Amino acid sequence: MKCFSRYLPYLFRPPSTILSSTCHTEADIISTVEFNSSGELLATGDKGGRVVVFQREQESKSQPQRRGEYNVYSTFQSHEPEFDYLKSLEIEEKINKIKWLPQQNAAYFLLSTNDKTVKLWKISERDKRPEGYNLKDDDGRIRDPSTITSLRVPVLQPMDLMVEATARRVFSNAHMYHINSISVNSDYQTYISTDDLRVNLWNLEITDRSFNIVDIKPANMEELTEVITSAEFHPQQCHTFAYSSSKGSIRLCDMREAALCDKHCKYFEEPEDPSTRSFFSEIISSISDVKFSHNGRYLMTRDYLTVKVWDLQMENKPLETYQVHDYLRGKLCSLYENDCIFDKFECVWNGSDSVIMTGSYNNFFRMFDRNTKRDVTLEASRENSKPRAILKPRKVCVGGKRRKDEISVDSLDFSKKILHTTWHPHENIIAVAATNNLYIFQDKVN
Amino acid sequence: MIMKGQKRKHPPEEVEVSDRSSPMWESQRQFVFSVSLNKYHHGQELPEPSLRRSVLIANTLRQVSLEAVAAPSVDMEVSPPPCSSSSALHESVVTAKQHPAETFSNSHSALVSCPTVTLNDLSYCVPASNAPLSLKDEDEDWGSMSMDSDFSLSVAISSILTALDSTIDGSSQAAPRTPLRSLENLSAPSDGGVAWVKQGLRGYGGGWEQQEEGRAWEGSTELMRCSYLSELTVEDLFQDIDTSLLERDMEVLGLIGSGGGCPTGDDLLRYLPPFSSSPSHPFSLSLNQNLKCLPSLSSFGPLSSSSSSSLPSLSSPHFSSQNHVREGLDLEHLMEILVES
Q1: Looking at the record's lineage, which domain of life comes first (chain A) (predicted)?
Q2: Quick check: A178 and B51 CB within 8 A?
Q3: Nearest residue on chain A to B65, judged by CA atoms?
Q4: Cross-strand partners of A321
Q5: Which domain covers residue A322, as residue numbers?
Q6: Is A52 inside a domain boundary?
């Protein structure tokens, strides 16, 4: 094990501050985390419909130990609870997904979505304000025109930095079912929003219409046996996207083939292993997240017990399969009973596509190095990690004799689950959401 | 391995068993079936259930049902896993499915062939005219039940009857079932009661074969003749049924006067909440919806002997189209007593 930790590329240490609140309400539960394309900003969405954006501190030579810490940059209420009068249903304000748009000017743009509505937010800074208007004074009060005797040119004066978020577009009334994912196209003009049965294509400028490109709703809802769980655009090919299903399959579609992409051009599914078949085989095969690699050659999927890496050129089986928490395989009955089996874990690539990461229970998260085939289990908790100390790898004891530092399967806390994680696009900085706490880890600097 | 704060239940065998012939597999299957059923109904009660979750649970239910059909016949002495009292009847349906009884097999195959565990309720995004059934149900008047609801009720009744039938040990079915004689008396002469079931089945217009109707009817008559409860007397049966709670509730509802005593049949029926009138639901869903609506009889204490003798008067002996529903529910009501005792 000594050898293992030395060769492990990433030894993460906790930040000096852990961004959280001691007493939290349901609304504080973080529901999504996402770095922007440069890694300078980190956005989180919570169940209360709020978006909190963190910005990385600029490196300063005077305080090298504070290299690149993230501080709150902007907070705004993205979605409010709504009421659908037609169906007499409440629409939750929980933010399901946030996706950043690439930066094209000084402002930042992100898409945030709840179950029904996608919104485009502009986050901009204001550090100057104009002063010296003719028709109104500096307080804003209108001046009496008869008192104006001379004209002046307003000048921009510096002011305290103010970050404001404004909703620039609202894309609504396009989804009958709950939106589970959004993905921005590499053309930077369109994006897709996906619910349980449909995928819609939007233009970022047009809010009053969208194109439906995938529809798996059967004519008779009684025949429904499969739903869409996630969808993503290819990182380079603007005509290609993939969507995953609750039956463990992934379909790759080419929008150039037809207006309606119900017919896939590639179908990825691994045949079921008859030796591991159980009553829960279908449930645990349901894919909860799908992510293209940065280079566009691979696809990663997360189901309940494993993470799989697929080669886009090979449809019949995954390239690599990683067991996240196989010790839960014998506990599926109980996990079904307490609903944990329906938890939707996300997965994420690192910048170079060499390491993948996903969450687990007991505030554990797992990393798999694709090259060395090594893996590590780490814990995001305040109790078990001192500030600036290297995180100690954790181990779950499956059976038999439990060692001193190990934790047994029956002692795992299934209410502490890490569903949302994200990785900095270029550096080894990760953000992990544990209920209402956000942990940001970075690798040790030698 | 439980969520914090959650009550510990009797866990099934943790190791997943893939060997179908093992009794462990069967107990796991039954456990999964009952849990899935509970989850499914709980999901339907939510204003907006998660479609993914509902589909996964429905698929699991379907798979478990299919496995039951494919599984070899299991020794009836294998006891089902412990379940909460509220799911006791579900359990009896589950054990019924094991038994390759002719009377049940056809209805079961109907269960399989129908888009079981219908996803009608999953289409929660339909226009308001198809508002969630739970909202409609509470407003519906008992007397205005449609014939379709008669059918679903009768299907529910027949399924309970066949379920009880198939839990019977294979021993003599010729001996008369003494306790049920009183039940037969409750709902009128036995042939009358059975005729009601048959009538209800015939009333339905679509989806069901004549063959299945006949067989369900046969199943109910067979139940009457079964000796399952031959040792027990009526008094024994109702000994532990406490109507004190019922009486208290009836007083609250203003249905009992100052004299107290056993409520009349109509009053009792008024107390029972109406069931859903969803004609297009397939067999299993209507069965469970009807059962779900009935109050748990485990809260009732023992009846006095005088009360028990007054039970036959609970339901009107007269059969009319309006009373079909009431008598059906009455029978169901009492069937639950039997099962839970």
Answers
A1: Eukaryota
A2: yes
A3: A279
A4: A308
A5: 4-120+173-443
A6: yes
A chain contacts of residue B31, beta-carbon cutoff 8 Å? 333
Report residue B49: phi and psi, to 5°.
-70, 155
Q: Please, how many CA atoms are within 13 Å of residue B92, restricted to the half-sphere of its CB?
A: 25
DSSP characters for A243-292? Answer: EEETTS-EEEEETTT-SSTTS-SEEE-PPP-GGG--TTHHHHH---EEEE
CATH number, domain containing residue A425: 2.130.10.10
Put simply, whether the predicted model's pTM sits higher than 0.90 gets the answer: no
Q: Do B32 and A414 touch (CB under 8 A)?
A: no
- The Cβ of residue B278 has, within 10 Å, a number of other Cβ atoms equal to 19
What digits encode the pLDDT tens for the residues B195-235?
Answer: 333 333 343 333 333 444 444 444 444 444 444 444 545 55
Q: Quick check: B118 and A330 CB within 8 A?
A: no
CB A229 within 8 A of CB A302: no
ipTM reported for the complex, 2 dp: 0.88
Q: For chain A, what is the domain count? A: 1
Residue A191 covered by a domain? yes
Average pLDDT over every residue of B62-90 = 56
> What token pair was written down for A116?
């029904």
Q: Is residue A140 part of a domain?
A: no
Give, rounded to a whole angstrom, the gap between the first and last alpha carbons of chain A. Answer: 21
Interatomic CA distance for residues A33 and A417, integer angstroms: 15
Per-residue pLDDT tens over the stretch B124-181: 333 334 433 333 444 434 344 444 444 444 454 445 444 444 444 444 444 443 433 3
Kindly report, residue by residue over B234-291, the tens digit of the pLDDT. 555 555 555 555 555 555 444 444 444 444 444 433 433 343 344 444 443 333 444 3
Is B128 near chain A, with CB under 8 Å? yes
Tell whether A163 is covered by a domain. no
Residue A235 one-letter amino acid: P
User: What tens digit of pLDDT does each residue of A223-238 get?
Assistant: 999 999 999 999 999 9
Structure tokens given for A69: 């810490």
